[in-house]
Each structure stands twice: as C-alpha cells, then as structure tokens.
Amino acid sequence: MIGNRGRVTGKIGPGLVGEVMISIRGGVEAFYAYPAEAGEVIEPGEQILVVDHQPPRSVYVQRWLPLG
Amino acid sequence: MPEGLLLVAISVVAGILVFVILLRMLWKVAEPNEALIISGLGTGSTPKSRPDSMGFKIITGKGTLVLPGFQVARRLSLDTNGANLQVSCVTQQGLPVTVRAVVIYKVGDDFVSIANAARRFLDRQDGMNSTIHELFSGHLRSICGGLTIEDLIHNRDALTGAVRQSSADEMSKLGLVIDSLQIQEIDDESGYILNLGKPHAAAVAASARIAEAERDQEATEAEQQAAAKKAASVRESEIQQAGYQAEMDQARAKSSQSGPLAEASARQEVVVQETRAAELEANLSEQRLLSEISKPADAKAYETRTVADAERDARIARAQAEAKETELKAAADATRVKTAAQAEAEATKARGSAEADATRATGEAEAAAARAKGMAEADAARAKGLAEAEGIRARAAALAENQEAVVAQQLAENWPEIVDAGAKAFSNIDNLVVLNGADGMSELFGKALSLGGTGLGLAKTLMQSMQNETATETATQNGTVHTIPVERDEQPSKN
C-alpha cells in the first residue's frame, strides 16, 4: 500500500478530505487522502505517492516528483 | 464376476458421491462479491504483527475447509447498495429546499472495513439501507447547509468534497465506502432556482425569439425571394409560352395559309412554266424563222455580197489589168506612132528632097512630055470625053436602074485610094489618145472604113473630093493623090 502511486480525484488540501484512486488488490479503490506535508495542496489529476496508510481507508500522500 | 464388478463400481461411485457431498458440506468458497467470515476453532490465531486479534477469519476470493460444529462460516455481501434519501434542508443562503438523492455505498474491500462492517451488519444486511438512510439524511442536511443552491446544482467537486468531509469518518467506522452520491432532485419552494434560471431562460427565450424572428425573417426573405424568383420564372415561362403560342399560332396560320399559298405558288409555277414554254415556243419559232428564212436570206445576201464583192474585185482587177494593158498599149502605140512618125518624117524629108529633085527632073521631062502628051491627050481627051459622055450616059442609065451596085462598084474600084485616104487621116497624128481602149482603134477604123448605109455618103464625098483633086492635080505635103484612072468600058487608054 505504502509506496503505491495514485491519482488525485478530489482536491487534497488543509481542511479538506481529498480522494485518490489507488491500484490495489487487482482493482482500483478510492481512498481518503490527506497531505503528508502540512499545507500542501494537490489539485485533482496530479500524481501522488502514498507515504502512509491509515486503516481502514485513509492515506497520506505527497506530490509525485519524477526523478530529474 | 460381472455382479462383483458392478458392486465394486457402484460402491466406488457411491464413495465418490459421499466424498463430493462431504466436500460440498465442509468446503466453503467465497465468491468475488462476498467475504466469508469464519469464526470458531482456530480462527482467533493472532498474527505475530498484530497485538490483538479480530477473533475471526476473513476469507475473500478463496475456498476454505469449515469444520462443522467447530467453526461457523457467514457470508458478508460486498455488493453495492443504493439508498434513496429525501431530505428537507436549508442551504447556505437560508433557502429551504427538499433534496432527493441516492447514495451508492458498499462494504470496503480491505479486511479492516470488512471486519468493521461484519461486526455491525452481519446479521442486519437487509437493514443496512435504513441505517444508511438515517445516517445520510443528517449528513445530507449538513452537506446542503454548507453549500449554496448553485453549488448543489453545478459544483460536483464541492458536493463530493463536502460528502467526503462530512461522512468519511463515520463511514470508516461502519466499514462502508461511499461510491457515489447523486442528487436527483431539488424542490425549491421559494422559486429560487426558477428565478435563478429565469434571466437565462428569458435571455434564452429572447435569443430564441430573436433567432426565431431572424430566422423567420430570413426564411420569409428567402421565401419572398424564392416567390419573386418563382414569379419571375413563371413570368418568363409564360412569356416564353406566349411566344411559343404566338409562334404556334403563326405556324398554324402559316400552315392554314400554306394550302392556298401552295396552290397559288403552284399556279404561279404553272404560269411560270407556261410562260417559259411560250417563251421556248417563241424562241423555237424564232429559231425556225431564223433557220428557214433569215439564215438562207443571210446566206443569199452573203452569197450575193460575196459574189458582188468578187465580181467587183474581178472588175477592178480587170479594169486595173485593162488600164495597165491600155497604158502599156498606149505607150507602145505612142512609141510606135512616134517612131513611125519620126521614120515617116525622115522618109518624107528624104522623099521630099528626092521628089523635089525628081520633080525638078521630071518636071522638065514632063514639061516636055506634057507638051507632047498634051497634044496627044487633047486628042485622047476629045475621044475620051466623047467616050465618057457615052459611059456617063450609060452609067446614068445604069444608075437609074441600080444606083447601089454602081456605087459599090465605084467604091470597090476606088478601095485603095479610100484606104489610103483613111490612113492619111492618121498619118498626121503625133499623139493619139484613145479613151475606149483597144476597141477604140478598131472602132475608129471601123467608122472610118465602114461601108454601111451611112458610110456610103462619106464614100461618095471621098470619091467626089478625089475626083476634084484629080481634076485640080494639086500635090499636098502629105503625099500625092494618085488619080485612079477610070477605065472606060468602051475604050482602052492610049499610050
């Protein structure tokens, strides 16, 4: 779960419950997403990296930074 | 043998059947849309990673042996469920609205959610909807309270965000996941939405009316243009038709006239042909006239003309030839006459001189002779006179009887002298021009010498003159006139 990449479907920001779609268990599931770094805002459509998982369905994410 | 085999087979089949039935009873398989919750013996084994146990086993997507009596297997549906909600709520603007919505939810696929849901709903799966309904009505109220009507209507992101924000934790508690919240209907008692839409509606209606009017105008214009064009084309076609009609009428009139016209033209043709025939006949008769009368007349005229021309030419030629001949003859005659005259002159001269000499000589001789002769002649004359008197008497008598014969005799007796006298008439001529050609000379001579009835008088005169000359005995320059001795019948002359 942690280390998976996902796509933002609902805006992630402070005071918001975001939504990310993550490929898992052979399917794609929606998880509630919160920014790993406080104050970060991630708009829908961006790629994220799951850095923490709060069962059952909450993940902490940060913006996916491609190398280079 | 066969019975033993059959028994064995039957027992085998029965054994297989028993085994299958046992398996069917003991072996449980979780289908994709459900989770097996197994509790009982051996399910409470705790994983080393987790300090506390769920106290049951969750099986998804696999089969497992369930020992009856020791274990209990329950199925938890993971299917989605839809809960219809109808909530009267107040929006952020304080507008009372009735919202009808449907919420689509399911049990979460992770074991935590399944465990939560199993703990809450395993026996009350049918009642899940009501629970959710109750739960979500409150949530929907809070969601609506946090949103404006415009957001409710338009802003899907805001709605879903609000739904998540309000319901995420509680849904997690229940082990459920909201797949979707759909607001189906918003009943607005205040007419806000209606009024919200009215400007747009009015604008739309206005624009629609404008567009309609414009399109109507355009269509009308187009129609009018088309009608005008149609009218124009109709007019043109009618004009053309009228023209064609006129042409047809004209053609018909022409064709109706064409009978008489053809007749007339045929008649005209006949007349023309007849005229032509008449002309031809006239020509023919003319030709006939020409060939029968005019041509022969022409030929005759031509012949006559030609003959006349030829004659004239011949005459001219003859006249020219005669003129030439006459000229030549005249020249020759002149020459001859000239030479003759010259010769004669010479001769005369010579003769004159000779005669003069002779005359002188003879004169003397004759004088002597004459004396003698005179004497003799005197005698002879007497005798002759007597004789002549007699002869004359006799001749007179004869003359009385036959004058002509006497004269002719006289003439015959005297021919040489007559001719001589005639020739003497020419001897004196130097240059004689005869106008009547060669015939003239002969004519002249003829006239001179003719012995016709007219010439007798001339002969008489000639004889008379000769007798006179003999009587006178004169000698002329032209020559001597010899007296012709007239012999008497009775007496011969004496010598």
Automatic annotation (TrEMBL), chain A:
Superkingdom per UniProt: Bacteria
Alphabetized InterPro entries for the sequence: NA-bd_OB-fold (IPR012340)
Protein name: Uncharacterized protein
Species this protein is from: Actinoalloteichus fjordicus
Lineage: Bacteria, Bacillati, Actinomycetota, Actinomycetes, Pseudonocardiales
UniProtKB/TrEMBL annotation, chain B:
GO cellular component, one term: plasma membrane
PANTHER family: FLOTILLIN-1-RELATED (PTHR13806:SF46), FLOTILLIN-RELATED (PTHR13806)
Chain intervals with Low complexity compositional bias: 222-231
Lineage: Bacteria, Bacillati, Actinomycetota, Actinomycetes, Pseudonocardiales
GO BP term, example: protein localization to plasma membrane
Keywords per UniProt: Coiled coil, Membrane, Transmembrane, Transmembrane helix
UniProt xrefs under InterPro entries: Band_7, Band_7/SPFH_dom_sf, Flotillin_C, Flotillin_fam
Polar residues: bias regions: 468-481
Source organism of the structure: Actinoalloteichus fjordicus
Domain Flotillin C-terminal: 364-474
Residue stretches making up the Band domain: 29-216
GO MF annotation: an example: protease binding
Keyword set includes RNA-binding: no
Biased composition (Basic and acidic residues): 346-358, 485-495
Region feature Disordered, mapped onto this chain: 215-234, 240-267, 344-364, 468-495
Family the entry assigns: Belongs to the band 7/mec-2 family. Flotillin subfamily.
Regions annotated as coiled coil: 307-334
SUPFAM superfamilies, per database record: Band 7/SPFH domain
Residue spans crossing the bilayer: 6-27
Domain of life, source organism: Bacteria
UniProt entry tagged with the keyword DNA-binding: no
Location(s), subcellular: Membrane
The name this protein goes by in its record: Flotillin family protein
